Automatic annotation (TrEMBL):
Pfam families: Methyltransf_25. GO terms for biological process: methylation. Signal peptide: none annotated. The lineage of its organism: Eukaryota, Fungi, Dikarya, Ascomycota, Pezizomycotina. The keyword Transferase applies. This is Methyltransferase domain-containing protein. It comes from the Eukaryota. It comes from Colletotrichum chrysophilum. InterPro entries: Methyltransf_25 (IPR041698), SAM-dependent_MTases_sf (IPR029063). One of its GO terms (molecular function) is methyltransferase activity.
């Protein structure tokens, strides 16, 4: 598994990817994806994560959070703002082209990982919270079982 930090999407690599929803200008699409989080997700849910989950995470010493199919990492970066400073937050995606160039928090890391492949053993069972959203729209029905097994 490759550590990918500070990767920048350019239009040349943008369309050369397995992710089928990449369209148009890379910067415009990245802004759209982030805007969906702030203009759709947060207004619908009212919060980045339920308060009792954030409270529990913050009671742990060095809580670890994984965001699978992280895309731009917008949820991960948002939740990191609500966690203690020693939290470790990791965004995983098979398409590293959307990873942000930089993040506001030094504890936010991005790693290239395909959910259809087993996660490295050193990561298995090490997270206090694993977050997955909208993954089903990017997968075939025949892949759901494999993805679910790799998440546990």
């Amino acid at each position: 598994m490759a550590d990918i930090i500070n990767t920048q999407a350019d239009d040349a690599s943008w369309t050369d990817t397995f992710y089928s929803l990449n369209r148009g200008n890379a910067e415009t699409e990245l802004q759209r994806l982030d805007a969906n989080h702030f203009n759709v997700w947060l207004p619908l849910t009212g919060q980045v994560a339920p308060a009792h989950i954030l409270d529990q995470l913050n009671q742990n010493s060095s809580p670890r959070v994984a965001d699978v199919a992280t895309g731009t990492g917008v949820w991960l970066r948002s939740v990191a703002q609500h966690l203690r400073s020693d939290a470790e937050v990791f965004g995983f995606d098979f398409d590293a082209v959307k990873f942000p160039v930089s993040t506001a928090s030094s504890n936010v890391k991005f790693k290239q990982q395909n959910v259809l492949q087993e996660f490295p053993t050193e990561l298995q069972g090490t997270f206090d919270l694993a977050h997955v959203r909208l993954l089903l729209i990017a997968m075939k029905a025949s892949e759901f079982q494999t993805a679910t097994e790799n998440l546990f």
